[in-house]
């Protein structure tokens, strides 16, 4: 196994001087995910790695299953660097699949269960995926039909692998074989693609390497004090960066602990699992935190094993933050992260006011932060500005997106997060808002332009602008403001049109308003700020 080789085309990487520095300083240690699991199986073979459904796999069992599945993938013709779109719910098989791909150097593309034909079709086509892994049914949706549709439209897609009843496709359970020796990837290779929340017309793909992601795990495990005693409940969608690696299930494996899979984050599913498995830590987005805080089930279950509730993905209000300890009897950890890299944590031993009122600080001393104004000039200490960041686990560019990368990164390699933040005198970050054209719907990210493009495809839509409107529960909801062509269509017809185009349901507008014209900025662009302000006003004034 070499330590470095030619990079995957279309994946920007770190300049050689940075890469050398990150290696020499010990951030990148030349590890791979395939080897990590092998090492844990050697050291903690009989300990339980993963619990979910009827499964209870030890590290040795998981490792052996991964070897057999990798051999089967290889026999199907899947090779190093081939892309495989993985869309599975919170089941143990999710890790079996991704570790098998890691071990052979094939690259998972992490789709969410909520994605539909529009997103999946795009991921498969854009990455020239050779395989697509799905459940038969989940959440009332049959993924086999979706796969049929995507396969017909994607010439590169050779295999649809189904967990459960395969129908006309291939059963995942039929793939495993006697292990064979496979050449693994280099630590500097891309390991997988995460998805960006995005602000543009199509979702962007985030290439993460073994070196950089494993460092982010190690730093997360250290800050969050995960150990062999950790029992982590995976309640958010497993493929998302937060439950995957902050420290998430992969961090739990890194530490030799136990990960428990919840098919739903709702209290009726999660609380019994916490009680039964003696879960010590879990992660939620703010709206789910409110559901847990308000649930009467908290009194019916023994949640005393839970030591830490991590909350991130969107801004948690100070009021909700203050309720966590008194209501659930566990500590709170705020997490402000992004799939592109940088993750900030409040520390477990921070004073309660810092935990409740800030989004924490970078996990690595090698994370470089800048808080700047619109001209990239640093703001005065304590002022609010755009957050830029660079470091050993923050990407230098999206996959095959040269023109976008020129805007999303500074010339010296800082990622423009699109977040507006301020730094407290203690060095903690407070998220004050957002400059990117995105709606953060309780942690689910909606790129305005993506939804606008779909709306513009409707014959009765002359123009469309999608903006956030405030919402008590989700923080924000989406509002599509539409200039109709001729008579305005019924909002329900427009939403049906978007669904029929295969848009994930969290991107379907919560509200549709019709207007004759958009407010404009000085240079004649749509002023989304003015739109948001006028919507806020009209929504808060009761109609006469
Ligand atoms: C996480 O990752 P993504 O890629 O879905 O979204 C990143 C964006 C950030 O740029 C920020 O706009 C927002 O989500 N965000 C927060 C936040 N955490 C994320 N905004 C306010 N407060 C927070 N605590 O969302 C993610 C990735 C890893 C760990 C945690 C969250």
UniProtKB/TrEMBL annotation:
Classification from the root reads: Bacteria, Pseudomonadati, Myxococcota, Myxococcia, Myxococcales
Which stretches make up the AMP-binding enzyme C-terminal domain?
450-525
Pfam name, any one: AMP-binding_C
> Record's CDD domains?
23DHB-AMP_lg
Keywords assigned: Ligase, Nucleotidyltransferase, Transferase
Under the heading NCBIfam families, the entry gives: DHB_AMP_lig (TIGR02275)
**What sequence ranges are listed for the domain AMP-dependent synthetase/ligase?**
38-399
What species is this protein from? Corallococcus exercitus
The Gene Ontology terms for molecular function here are: 2,3-dihydroxybenzoate--[aryl-carrier protein] ligase; nucleotidyltransferase activity
* Superkingdom classification of source: Bacteria
Q: In which pathway does it act?
A: Siderophore biosynthesis
Mind telling me which InterPro entries this protein's record contains?
AMP-bd_C (IPR025110), AMP-bd_C_sf (IPR045851), AMP-binding_CS (IPR020845), AMP-dep_synth/lig_dom (IPR000873), ATP-dep_AMP-bd_enzyme (IPR050237), DHB_AMP_lig (IPR011963)
> Is Ligase included in the keywords of this UniProt record?
yes
Entry's family note: Belongs to the ATP-dependent AMP-binding enzyme family.
SUPFAM superfamilies in the record, alphabetically?
Acetyl-CoA synthetase-like
What protein name is recorded for this chain? (2,3-dihydroxybenzoyl)adenylate synthase
What Enzyme Commission number does this protein have? 2.7.7.58
Q: Which GO terms describe its biological process?
A: siderophore biosynthetic process
């Amino acid at each position: 196994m070499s330590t470095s080789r030619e990079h995957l085309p279309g994946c920007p990487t770190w300049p050689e001087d940075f890469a050398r520095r990150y290696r020499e300083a010990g951030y990148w240690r030349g590890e791979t995910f395939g080897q990590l699991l092998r090492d844990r199986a050697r050291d903690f073979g009989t300990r339980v790695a993963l619990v979910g459904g009827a499964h209870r796999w030890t590290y040795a069992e998981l490792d052996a299953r991964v070897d057999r599945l990798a051999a089967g993938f290889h026999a199907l013709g899947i090779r190093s660097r081939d892309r495989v779109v993985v869309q599975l719910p919170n089941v143990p098989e999710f890790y079996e699949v991704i570790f098998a791909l890691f071990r052979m150097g094939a690259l998972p593309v992490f789709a969410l269960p909520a994605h539909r034909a529009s997103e999946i079709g795009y991921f498969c086509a854009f990455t020239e995926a050779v395989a697509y892994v799905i459940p038969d049914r989940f959440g009332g949706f049959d993924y086999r039909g979706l796969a049929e549709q995507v396969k017909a439209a994607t010439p590169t897609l050779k295999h649809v692998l189904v967990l459960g009843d395969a129908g006309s496709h291939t059963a995942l359970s039929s793939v495993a074989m006697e292990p064979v020796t496979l050449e693994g990837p280099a630590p500097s290779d891309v390991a997988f693609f995460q998805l960006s929340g995005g602000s543009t017309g199509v979702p962007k793909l985030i290439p993460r390497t073994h070196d950089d992601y494993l460092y982010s795990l190690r730093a997360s495990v250290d800050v969050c004090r995960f150990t062999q005693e950790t029992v982590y409940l995976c309640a958010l969608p497993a493929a998302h960066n937060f439950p995957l690696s902050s420290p998430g299930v992969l961090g739990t494996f890194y530490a030799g602990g136990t990960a428990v899979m919840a098919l739903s984050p709702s209290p009726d599913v999660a609380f019994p699992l916490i009680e039964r498995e003696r879960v010590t830590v879990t992660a939620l987005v703010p709206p789910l935190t409110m559901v847990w805080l308000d649930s009467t089930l908290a009194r019916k279950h023994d949640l005393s094993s839970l030591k830490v509730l991590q909350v991130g993905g969107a801004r948690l209000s100070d009021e909700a933050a203050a309720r966590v300890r008194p209501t659930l009897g566990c500590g709170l950890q705020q997490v402000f992260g992004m799939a592109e890299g940088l993750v900030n944590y409040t520390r477990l031993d921070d004073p309660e006011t810092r935990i409740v009122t800030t989004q924490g600080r970078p996990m690595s001393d090698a994370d470089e932060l800048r808080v700047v104004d619109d001209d990239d000039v640093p703001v005065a200490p304590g002022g609010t500005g755009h957050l830029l960041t660079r470091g050993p686990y923050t990407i230098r560019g999206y996959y095959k997106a040269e023109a976008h990368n020129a805007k999303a990164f500074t010339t010296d390699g800082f990622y423009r997060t699109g977040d507006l933040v301020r730094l407290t005198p203690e060095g903690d970050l407070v998220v004050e808002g957002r400059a990117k054209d995105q709606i953060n719907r309780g942690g689910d990210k909606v790129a305005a332009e993506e939804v606008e493009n779909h709306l513009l495809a409707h014959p009765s839509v002359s123009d469309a602008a999608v903006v956030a409107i405030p919402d008590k529960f989700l923080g924000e909801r989406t509002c599509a403001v539409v200039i109709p062509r001729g008579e305005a269509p019924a909002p329900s017809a427009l939403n049906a049109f978007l669904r029929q185009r295969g848009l994930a349901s969290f991107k379907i507008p919560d509200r549709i308003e019709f207007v004759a014209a958009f407010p404009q900025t000085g240079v004649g662009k749509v002023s989304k700020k003015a739109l948001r302000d006028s919507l806020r006003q009209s929504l808060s004034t009761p109609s006469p």
